[in-house]
Specification:
A: 126 residues, mainly alpha, 3 helical TM bundles of succinate and fumarate reductases, 79% helix, B: mainly alpha, 74% helix, elongated, binds protoporphyrin IX containing FE
């Protein structure tokens, strides 16, 4: 016999109220990361030894800038989701856990924003 | 029920399932742990990537400083480790996607795939660095 109420069963979203949302977003960003990571590694290798002016010129290509922004956004969303699971697994004390979960979101948002702004500045003639 | 306790200690102590140290280490278990460790390492490694991009956006002087730092022996060592973590985590992630379809889950296949992802990550890392040094001339 199930202990769950009919309403919770029909909503099907579980104790965190998210259903499979977290799992799905982790997979989605993970799949996106595969080509983006390969593209980023390629970008780094092709630019080895370049000056700042050469670097900026490469990022001024819309294709390169778009790839970098997608890599940053998909990357920080993915790592936010991943670190959240690690925190939930290892931090049993509720207060510390909530503080860590908040710090995780702030860190990923800040890192992502700085990255996107840097790319935009270079893309528009940095 | 004490709301804060997830450890099962205290008055409502319940039996716990055996923890990691009970089991003989297997390659699948090691690779699972390494997937988490590389994920966490990449999390902080993102600071290097973003710092590098931000230095380029800040101008030639900042970019030169960043390039010198990353190009130093220690910098290269860290970047080499970052490259391996990236490729290892990528292959580990692809392994997860395959498992999500229900394929390759049986014990012997899973062990083979685990070894293959370890070997593949080393191969991809070396390949990237060989190409990198070739590009730099
Ligand atoms: C290269 C392509 C990538 C793929 C295919 C990938 C795939 C995955 C998958 C499928 C998971 C979930 C594992 C699970 O459910 O146990 C995961 C977890 C994680 N990933 Fe990624 N990922 C990639 C890149 C990255 C990057 C670039 C970062 C960091 C900037 C990152 C950080 C993490 C973290 C922190 C976790 C949580 C680890 C855990 O719960 O054990 N991943 N990744």
């Amino acid at each position: 016999m199930s202990m769950r109420t009919p309403l919770s069963r029909v909503r099907g979203l579980g104790s965190a109220g998210e259903g499979t949302g977290h799992f799905w977003k982790q997979r989605l960003t993970g799949v996106a990361n595969v080509p983006l990571v390969l593209g980023f590694v390629w970008f780094v290798i092709c630019g080895l030894g370049s000056t700042q002016a050469e670097f900026a010129a490469r990022v001024s290509s819309p294709l390169v800038a778009a790839m970098l922004i997608l890599f940053i956004v998909s990357g920080v969303v993915h790592m936010k989701l991943g670190m959240q699971v690690i925190i939930e697994d290892y931090v049993p004390a509720e207060g510390t856990r909530i503080a860590a979960l908040i710090a995780n979101i702030f860190f990923c948002a800040a890192v992502g924003l700085v990255g996107v702004l840097a790319v935009l500045k270079l893309a528009f003639g940095g | 029920m004490s709301g804060n306790s997830r450890t099962g200690g205290g008055a409502d102590a319940r039996p716990l399932s055996p923890h990691l140290q009970i089991y003989r280490p297997a390659i699948t278990m090691t690779m699972s742990i390494v997937h988490r460790i590389t994920g966490a390492a990449l999390y902080f490694g993102t600071l290097i990537v973003i710092g590098w991009l931000a230095s380029a956006a800040s101008g030639p002087a900042a970019f030169d400083t960043a390039q010198n730092l990353l190009g130093s022996f220690l910098g290269r060592l860290v970047l080499f480790g970052y490259t391996w973590a990236l490729f290892h985590h990528m292959l580990g992630g692809i392994r997860h996607f395959i498992w999500d379809t229900g394929a390759m889950l049986d014990k012997h296949t899973a062990s083979k795939v685990a070894w293959a992802s370890l070997g593949g990550s080393v191969a991809l890392t070396l390949l990237a660095w060989v190409i990198g040094y070739a590009v730099m001339g």
